[in-house]
Amino acid sequence: MSQHQGGDIDYMADDYEMADVDDDMDFRGRGMGDSESDDDEYGHLDSKITDTSSAQARRGKDIQGIPWERLSISREKYRQTRLEQYKNYENIPQSGEGSEKECKPAKKGGMYYEFRRNTRSVKSTILHFQLRNLVWATSKHDVYLMSHFSVIHWSSLACHKTEVLNVSGHVAPCEKHPGSLLEGFTQTQVSTLAIKDNLLVAGGFQGELICKYLDRPGISFCSRTTYDDNAITNAVEIYDSPSCAVHFMASNNDCGVRDFDMEKFQLSKHFRFPWPVNHTSLSPDSKLIVIVGDNPDGILVDSQTGKTVMPLCGHLDFSFASAWHPDGRTFATGNQDKTCRIWDIRNLSKSVAVLKGNLGAIRSIRFTSDGQFMAMAEPADFVHVYDVKNGYEKEQEIDFFGEISGVSFSPDTESLFIGVWDRTYGSLLQYGRCRNYSYLDSLF
């Protein structure tokens, strides 16, 4: 992944984000404007914007609370301008244009998840513009996300947020384990996050790893993957090993993938690859790992040895997302060439489907636990939900404005959460799975 960090937020705000589309617009936030100074000039609007419920959305209110009726541009016109002016970040020039001929057109109009609520009191943030795995749901009502230096828990049932971890100051483990960095860290910049069951793992910009059990006080384990200058933790995946021990896998910019055993609190495996690793996904049977990074080709490797089983050829730029379908036969990879490719392990000579985004890179991919749906997130504005069981031929396009910090289905598949980073309209979007309870009609 790209090394620049300090200017990442400005890069998204000024060049990579929404352009200055109308000099006469009454409102400009980070998403709708073009500079940090716009916040001060138009910040008074922030206090006037409230959450949006599903009932209000059905009555015609914009789901993000954007007052289009007060602006000198319509939503439709702004969307058109946004599509025309948005600049996709590419490491390999023209990769987005080159991928179009292979794309499989999907029929739009699917309705799999319906809007439930937009919560503006919960504002997710992004550290690096290429890393978008900062939102994790642990139930249909509970979601965790990064907000500046804090990991926040939001309960959509109680409409209450709680800070569960703050890394703005000094953090150190309160438990003693061999290999744990007892001195801890100061002002960790969290680049990636993973939460499963009760374990939270935060990865930092300098290779930091901070592990906390949500049902215990304090930090359980701290480690630094490397002291290399190129140390960014790009992704973390938590999983249960075949022996039922809890492990997590960290992907780093130093070309390494490290596996940690959280029963023993120690490093168990360390694999090295020819290029920085941006994301990894372990197969449901724990035998194979999808490795993607700063190379157009990904690789499928043996989880025990790290040896290549098969290259994954087809993408035209660097990849930052991957995910396995629960059946263990297919998986997906997301790339800066604006595509998501679907692969079948029974024939890896080419991908079985190529799905196209609207604006830019595919930076996050999630499957529902029942395998029915797949969500792929672009850097901004669009999350696409595909009907997997029907061959990715139909999709629901979720359309809004703002950078996407992460997407997450709840383990029971009932909720879909989307983190939106925007200086004025930053929020957490919640969607609920559409169910056809036709048998209830007989009661009325």
Topology record:
Elements: H1 8-16, H2 37-42, E1 52-53, H3 54-58, H4 75-85, H5 95-98, E2 107-108, E3 113-119, E4 135-137, E5 142-147, E6 150-155, E7 160-166, E8 170-171, E9 185-186, E10 190-196, E11 199-204, E12 208-213, E13 221-224, E14 233-240, E15 246-252, E16 256-261, E17 266-272, E18 277-282, E19 288-293, E20 295-302, E21 308-312, E22 319-324, E23 330-335, E24 339-344, E25 353-356, E26 364-367, E27 373-377, E28 380-387, E29 394-409, E30 415-421, E31 427-433
Parallel strand pairs: 2-29
Antiparallel strand pairs: 1-3, 3-31, 4-5, 5-6, 6-7, 8-9, 10-11, 11-12, 12-13, 14-15, 15-16, 16-17, 18-19, 19-20, 20-21, 22-23, 23-24, 24-25, 26-27, 27-28, 28-29, 29-30, 30-31
Write down the Rg: 21 Å
Structural class: mainly beta
What is the overall silhouette? globular
CATH class of the largest domain: Mainly Beta
Task: List the total number of helices.
Answer: 5
Pfam family, one: WD40
Region (Disordered): 23-60
Keywords: WD repeat
WD repeats: 312-353
